[in-house]
Every structure is written in structure tokens, then in C-alpha cells.
Amino acid sequence: MLKTERIRDKAGLDAAFAIRTHVFVEEQGVPVEREMDEHDASALHVLAYYEEKPVATGRMRMLDGMAKLERICVLAECRKSGAGKAIMLKLESIAQEQGAAGLKLNAQRSAEGFYKRLGYSTISGEFMEEGIPHVTMTKPL
Q1: How far apart are CA 123 and CA 96, in angstroms?
Q2: Lesser CB count within 10 Å: N end or C end of the chain?
Q3: pLDDT at residue 1 in the model
Q4: What is the pLDDT of residues 59-97, one digit of tens each?
Q5: What is the pLDDT along the chain (141 residues), one digit of tens a residue?
Q6: Which residues contact 108 (CB under 8 A, 6 or more apart)?
Q7: In DSSP terms, which residues pair with 104 in a beta bridge?
Q8: Angstrom distance (rounded) from CA 80 to CA 102
Q9: What radius of gyration do the chain's Cα atoms show?
Q10: Are 103 and 132 within 8 A, CB to CB?
Q11: From the centroid of its chain, how far is CA 29?
Q12: CA distances (Å), 121 to each of 48, 107, 114, in order?
């Protein structure tokens, strides 16, 4: 059973930060001081649960009328479970409720196909963030 929710308390944020630490810091080698940033305090965060366990997270910030989706990740053992898509659909729904004109994200190149299947279009060339190839992608709402 898969469910998503907007994070509204410290326990939820702690779960999201634990997932991000596992995926970005431990798996991908991003320095923890770069992964956890000043935007965490003001961003809207979501979690996906698989069989009642938090397994995926993402955050959203509104910038110039667009919803910027960030820090989207799924624990390795739950990839292919639908948790990543569930996180994206939850963030997109919240962005729509908040009146965003569209969605924007910087996708790791290895995840570009995932985002394309969800309707995102690549609008940039490749660039590096934390030593990982990325592209910018957008989707109208």
C-alpha cells in the first residue's frame, strides 16, 4: 500500500531528511552540508509511505510563479514501487492548488527518462551539480 502526505511536523521532516541523507549523502556522495540547505526551513515537503514506512520524499518552493521541485528521492529498495511517481503527483497537485503556472526541476541525467514519462521536457544542456550530471526540465500546469 502506497500513500503520500504533506509533511506538517518535525517527525515527518526527520523522516524526509533521513531518506535524503541515505540517498544523496550515503549513496551519491553529496556533502551533508550541501544537501541540507537554507531552503529546507521554508520549502513545502512531502513523504511517500510504502507499507507504512517512509520511503520517498521531495520538496517544493514557489519561484516567480513556478513550482520548483527539489530533493526528490526514493530509497533504493523501493525504487520501481511507484513511490517516485506518487511523490511527483502529490507535489504537482499541491503546486496546482497554489496556482503555479508550471513546474521546474533539475533532474539527475540518470532520472531524465522517469521525468519525461511524467510529461516533463528538457530545456537545458547538461550541467554538473555536486559532481552529478543534471538537466533542467519543465512541465506546464
Answers
A1: 21
A2: N
A3: 85
A4: 999 999 999 999 999 999 999 999 999 999 999 999 999
A5: 899 999 999 999 999 999 999 999 999 999 999 999 999 999 999 999 999 999 999 999 999 999 999 999 999 999 999 999 999 999 999 999 999 999 999 999 999 999 999 999 999 999 999 999 999 999 999
A6: 132, 133, 134
A7: 68, 138
A8: 26
A9: 14
A10: no
A11: 17
A12: 24, 11, 11
Please report, as a single letter, which amino acid is at residue 118. Answer: L
**Grid-cell match 510529461, residue found:** 119
Q: What is the DSSP letter of 43?
A: S
Q: In terms of residues, how long is the chain?
A: 141
DSSP state of 15: H
Which triple of cell numbers denotes residue 89? 503527483
C-alpha cell at position 48: 511517500
- Identify residue 62 by its one-letter amino acid code: M
